[in-house]
């Protein structure tokens, strides 16, 4: 029967019981406490206007509020195929694998091995050997067995490391969620830019047709001797000036289309066929349910990520603190050893070595305490970064609310300006045709109408883009995923 020596056995069992009894009773370093930021009760920029409401609704698919099926399709395809998002998800898997490796430190390590050696020794040694010539001996050594070790987490260093690794996983999860939020907003913004460039191109082409008709009218009046060559030159300059804007608008349309393709993980130009069909600039159908500022910390991934960073750095203070205490490792080796393979597994060939190893830091020139100070400083930085992230989030929401609200008010005035400029141009053309006004009035009216129409569509873009920025600032768009 296999028996340990009495002394070895008592020593081992005593250490094991002590370790198991004490394990879990101590956790080094400070414990993490969830942050409670000081937030305002309501948004400063909400004044009962048409842009936003204090309702708290689900924002996980906010893009559907724009009522544009193609926009919805583009965003959903991007969330499935975007390369940056796939990389973020891979980082989550990496963090989870690291966490499993850290948690493995809580259990024992066991390895099985074997070896064979052929040893040539000098003459004069005595062993179970055979002579080789007159100058030495040759020995065969066979060995097989297993080694085991187990570091008892008596003072909680490994538990704190696992806690930190859990927080690291959460950091990567929230980072991926942040990528989803940003990606949806980028796709929406690029799509709005595309539709705006297409609309502005139509406006420029329409203005160009009107200006060409005016040029033709001016040329006829010049041939009839009713106007001077100066009027013809001014009309030609107006046509050329408007023509010069077309290539710029075409470039903007193509660049937006290329950006959308890349966001969907495709090559530039792959979406040209479906994006070439003209459509309106998307606009939200109802007010944005912004809720209250307190909702922001529960929803925005960057705030949640900053919170997880506080947790991770706090736990790592405990990991560093645990280095001040003894480390106890239970080690054992059991196997067989023989000089002949035929007797390797005989009971008499057995051997063992078992017992605890204790390591206690006595003097390290302040290295451990310096490391603790480093971790404490990192934890303080994480807390400050969290506070700054919350303030930045509040600022982004307020900025987007203000910009969208004010631009919506400006848009009403632009609508009136366009209508007034249309009436002014019609009147100027009638008067000019009847010889009741000069060409300068027509020229100014054409310029004013084109400028106001172009500005109006840019205003449509600004309002829609600011609404997208508001949804992004609120942190909507990740809740439906399964990270």
Secondary structure topology:
Blueprint (H helix, E strand, L loop, with lengths): L5 H17 L29 E2 L15 H13 L1 H21 L5 E14 L7 E2 L4 E17 L4 H67 L5 H35 L8 H4 L12 E2 L3 H7 L1 H22 L4 E12 L11 E10 L7 H67 L5 H36 L9
Parallel strand pairs: 1-5
Antiparallel strand pairs: 2-4, 3-4, 4-6, 6-7
Helix pairs in contact: 2-4, 3-4, 4-5, 4-8, 4-10, 5-10, 8-9, 9-10
Describe this structure in words.
The protein has a single domain (27-103, 155-325, 369-474), classed as Outer membrane efflux proteins (OEP). The protein is 60% helix and 12% strand. It contains ten helices and seven strands. It has helices at 6-22, 69-81, 83-103, 157-223, 229-263, 272-275, 293-299, 301-322, 367-433, 439-474, and strands at 52-53, 109-122, 130-131, 136-152, 288-289, 327-338, 350-359. The strands form two sheets. Strands 2, 3, 4, 6 and 7 form a five-stranded antiparallel sheet that branches. β3 and β4 (136-152) form a beta hairpin. The chain is elongated, with a radius of gyration of 39 Å. The chain starts with 5 loop residues before the first helix and ends in a 9-residue tail after the last helix.
